[in-house]
């Protein structure tokens, strides 16, 4: 089970409303390389990991991704706080306002709703872990693109933190993949 | 800021928390594909001290990879409550990052010891915070008061 900690893993304190950046950053909530997809992908995969190492790592990284969903959500909330419908419309968020008002809704930057088909599970622990390595790389690249689009330190700081976490997660998945390749060299399907 | 600086000094003075060493083992991360099969990362890991790791999002100097920004942003707490929370955030982050490493390298006794140092200090600081400012966890002692304290401000996403 999960328990709530009444704090963010990394603080979000955005002083300036920025609807353009909200429209871009939302993809890390509900887009193909977003935190929601990553969390569910890892948590779905953990049940069939071949040993305790894999079950622990996927549980722990999947749980951290849920904390990242909350960081991105806090960013979106603060970036949009106090915006008028006219301002939202001018920033390309008129459809968001029409459907959801000021609520959050997981979507990508184009407005496509979150899709569970983003989640890659293959019934094969090597294929699964390599999907996760790819997911971390795509998320890292997306964070770099988002960082390219702003100079506001209030926005850059959490984006930079989240990008760095992708690098660590990639490393841990790679270590696990390499360990399994060696451990199950001649019996991959056992 | 004064208290926060004290917290940081405290972190830096405790044991080896002040490690900022640049001599580390061969880098084996995504930016060095040639290190693909290097599994010798279980021994002699150097660590950032918790606050330095926290602001980087990474406790491991040999894995740190910066982009766009030339140095990590400092977290600048607005008041004493936020200062103590930053101290807790740093320790929780440090323990968590080590726990992911330990999932893969469960025999690294030094790292387990480090994990437990961070864990115990974070528990102590959380208790101090909850006594002063209210619960961070629903099972906190701070929830024994009336009126019910759990639904008090601040919520994490409010600024």
Describe the protein's architecture and organization:
The complex is a heterodimer of chains A (190) and B (159). Chain A has one domain (19-183): Ferritin (Up-down Bundle). Chain A is 63% helix and 0% strand. Chain A has helices spanning 19-25, 27-30, 35-45, 52-80, 85-90, 94-100, 125-148, 153-183. In chain A, 45% of the residues are buried. Chain B has 159 residues and is an all-alpha fold. Chain B has one domain. Chain B is 43% helix and 0% strand. Chain B has helices at residues 2-13, 50-56, 80-104, 109-133. Mean pLDDT of chain B is 81; it is low at 1-5 and 12-43. Chains A and B meet through helix 4, helix 7 and helix 8 of A and helix 2 and helix 3 of B.
Total tally of structural domains of chain A: 1
Helices of chain A, by number, come to: 8
Domain module tally of chain B: 1
Poorly predicted runs of chain B are 1-5, 12-43
Helix-strand makeup class of chain B: mainly alpha
What is the fourth-level CATH superfamily of chain A?
Ferritin, core subunit, four-helix bundle
Termini of chain B, distance in Å?
18 Å
* Secondary structure: number of strands of chain A: 0
Q: What is the CA–CA distance across the termini of chain A?
A: 29 Å
Beta content of chain A? under 5%
Shape of chain A: elongated
Q: Indicate the CATH architecture of chain A.
A: Up-down Bundle
Which two chains have the most extensive interface, and how many residues on each? A-B, 50 and 48 residues
Largest sheet of chain B: none
Keywords for this structure?
heterodimer; A: 190 residues; mainly alpha; Ferritin; 63% helix; B: mainly alpha; 4 helices; 43% helix; globular
Blueprint of the fold:
The complex is a heterodimer of chains A (190) and B (159).
Chain A lengths: L18 H7 L1 H4 L4 H11 L6 H29 L4 H6 L3 H7 L24 H24 L4 H31 L7
Helix pairs in contact in A: 1-4, 3-4, 3-7, 4-8, 7-8
Chain B lengths: L1 H12 L36 H7 L23 H25 L4 H25 L26
Helix pairs in contact in B: 1-3, 2-3, 3-4
